[in-house]
Amino acid sequence: PITQVIVRSSANVQSGGKTKASAFMHGIFILVFVALLPTVLNLIPRASLAAILLMVGYKLAKPSLFKSLWKEGKNQFIPFIITVLFIVFKDLLWGVAIGLVVAVFEILYLNYKKPYLVDLDPDKNTFVFKLAEDVTFIHKASILETLNQIPKNRKVIIDATESVHIHPDIKEIINDFRTHAEYMNIDVEVISLEGRTKSSSKADFRELLDSVPKK
């Protein structure tokens, strides 16, 4: 535990430490100086310690890291830069806490905006709904509105092969759509994780969607 703080462990690595023994000896040195020679440690100028921390921090968060995160897109860069700014201008705990909150809201926003993708086959007769990894109750209104806009005499394929969690309300919507689709001459199929498909005239889609594992 003595050497598991990132600044101390990275300083050990940057000094040439490569094995578990180096981490052990590093911890022993720190323990000995703190326990037996605290007055000697207090003689070290804080400016010198600050310079070491700045150098270690620079190597941990060098400009290339910022550039790589920027290239990965704003969804990765925004939570990162907000976390860094709060750590620098506030403190570590605030930075981590705010960073987690921003990341959670980012995930919720992306899932709310993109619960599924819709493709239209070249023959203009088949709509393919590809569900996201997590389809929660907040997607209910969006999915219901889209399904209700499908014209008559079409075919709909709902692909859940990449879904890990589908909320029961979403399963209910899909099953209700299957029931009403028969009156509009809409053929509905669902693809589960196992790759099975069932026609709208033969299946309760809640049973098929229940094959999606729950978190």
In terms of topology, how is this protein built?
Blueprint: H1 6-14, H2 20-36, H3 38-42, H4 46-60, H5 63-71, H6 74-89, H7 92-113, E1 116-120, E2 126-131, E3 134-135, H8 140-148, E4 155-159, E5 165-166, H9 168-181, E6 187-191, E7 197-199, H10 205-209
Parallel strand pairs: 2-4, 3-5, 4-6
Antiparallel strand pairs: 1-2, 6-7
Q: What is the CATH superfamily of the largest domain? A: STAS domain
Unreliable stretches: 194-204
Query: If you consult CATH, what is the topology of the largest domain?
Result: Transcription Regulator spoIIAA
Q: Helical residue percent?
A: 55-70%
Which structural class should the secondary elements be placed in?
Answer: alpha/beta
Radius of gyration: 28 Å
pLDDT averaged over residues: 76
The count of DSSP E runs of length 2 or more, i.e. the number of strands, is: 7
Main beta sheet: 5 strands, mixed
Distance between the termini: 32 Å
The main sheet orders its strands as 1-2-4-6-7
What is the tally of helical segments? 10
